[in-house]
Design a protein that fits this description.
263 residues, alpha+beta, Multidrug-efflux Transporter Regulator, Chain: A, Domain 2, 434 Repressor (Amino-terminal Domain), Jelly Rolls, 6-stranded antiparallel β-sheet, 3-stranded antiparallel β-sheet, MerR-type_HTH_dom, RmlC-like_jellyroll, Cro/C1-type_HTH
C-alpha cells in the first residue's frame, strides 16, 4: 500500500473482487481516471475503490454496457468524487438554499440532527427510506434530489437506455423505464440475493408491481408478509409502510409502477 489512502492495482482487484486486467479495460473504456506515480504505477484512492465496486455491480449484476454506465455514473460523480461525498454536498447545498438549520431539516425528515450532519459530511450513505424522506422534505423526487440527467422522453426505451437511480444501496438497483412527463412512474427493480430496502418506505400515492423473475418478500405495516414469485402482481397504498427483500438464491426483477412520481 503506497499510503494510508492509496492502493496498487493488485490490491484493489482483491478488494473489489475482480481482476487487474478487467480494471485496466474499464480504464481504457473511459470509466475510470486513475492517478499514477512518476514511474507509471496506478494508485487508487478510496473514491476509486467505491467507483470500481459500483462498476462491477452494474456490469455483473445488471448487465449494463460501457455506454450506459458512462451516461449514468460519470454524470453523478465527476472527477471520481465518492458517492457519499457527492450526495452529502447535494444535501448541504439544498439545505443552505432553503435557509434551514441541521435541526430544521432533521425535524422535516424525522431523524436526528446528527444523522443529517453525518450524511452531509459524507461519513455515511443515506438509506432508501432516508432518501425518500429527504426528497419529500425538499419537495423533490429522488431523481431530482440525486441530480439524475434524464433522457428526453421517447415512446420506446431500450434496455441500455434506462436511467439508473444512483442510490448505492448494495444489491439493489432502480432503473427508470420512462423519463418523460407522466402521472405514472415505472421502474425496473433488480434485487440481488440477500439484498433489499434497508428500512421501510412510506410516501403518498399508490403502487403496483409485477415480479418478472425470482422472488421477493414484501412487508406491509411492519408485520404483514407477502411472498411474491415470478408472475405474481400486487397493488397497495404507498402510505402503508413497505419494505422488501430477496430471500432467495437467484436475482429478482420487478416491474414497479407508482403514482404520483416519487423516484
Amino acid at each position: 500500500m503506497a499510503n494510508a489512502r492509496s492502493w496498487l492495482i493488485g490490491e484493489v482487484a482483491k478488494i473489489v473482487g475482480t481482476s487487474p486486467s478487467r480494471i485496466r479495460a474499464w480504464e481504457k473504456e473511459g470509466l475510470l481516471n486513475v492517478r499514477r506515480t512518476s514511474s507509471g504505477h496506478r494508485l487508487y484512492s478510496t473514491a476509486d475503490v467505491e467507483r470500481l465496486r459500483e462498476l462491477k455491480r452494474l456490469v455483473d449484476g445488471e448487465g449494463w454496457s460501457a455506454t450506459a454506465i458512462k451516461a449514468n455514473l460519470n454524470a453523478h460523480f465527476p472527477d471520481n468524487m465518492s458517492p457519499s461525498n457527492a450526495i452529502g454536498r447535494r444535501i448541504r447545498d439544498l439545505r443552505g438554499t432553503a435557509g434551514w438549520s441541521l435541526r430544521d431539516l432533521a425535524e422535516r425528515c424525522g431523524v436526528a440532527p446528527s444523522t443529517v450532519s453525518s450524511l452531509e459530511r459524507g461519513q455515511s450513505m443515506p438509506s432508501v427510506g432516508s432518501l425518500h424522506k429527504l426528497g419529500r422534505a425538499f419537495g423533490m423526487t429522488l431523481a431530482q434530489l440525486l441530480e439524475v440527467d434524464e433522457a428526453d422522453s421517447s415512446l420506446v426505451v431500450r434496455k441500455g437506455e434506462r436511467v439508473l437511480i444512483p442510490m448505492h444501496t448494495p444489491g439493489l438497483a432502480w432503473e427508470k423505464l420512462y423519463t418523460g412527463e407522466s402521472v405514472l412512474e415505472s421502474l425496473m427493480v433488480t434485487v440481488q440475493p440477500g439484498a433489499g430496502t434497508d428500512g421501510a418506505l412510506q410516501h403518498y400515492g399508490e403502487e403496483f408491481l409485477y415480479v418478472v423473475k425470482g422472488s421477493i418478500e414484501l412487508v406491509l405495516d411492519g408485520h404483514q408478509k407477502y411472498d411474491l414469485h415470478a408472475g405474481d402482481a400486487m397493488t397497495f397504498d404507498s402510505m402503508r409502510e413497505h419494505s422488501y427483500s430477496n430471500r432467495g438464491t437467484k436475482i429478482a426483477q420487478i416491474v414497479w409502477v407508482n403514482t404520483p412520481p416519487t423516484i
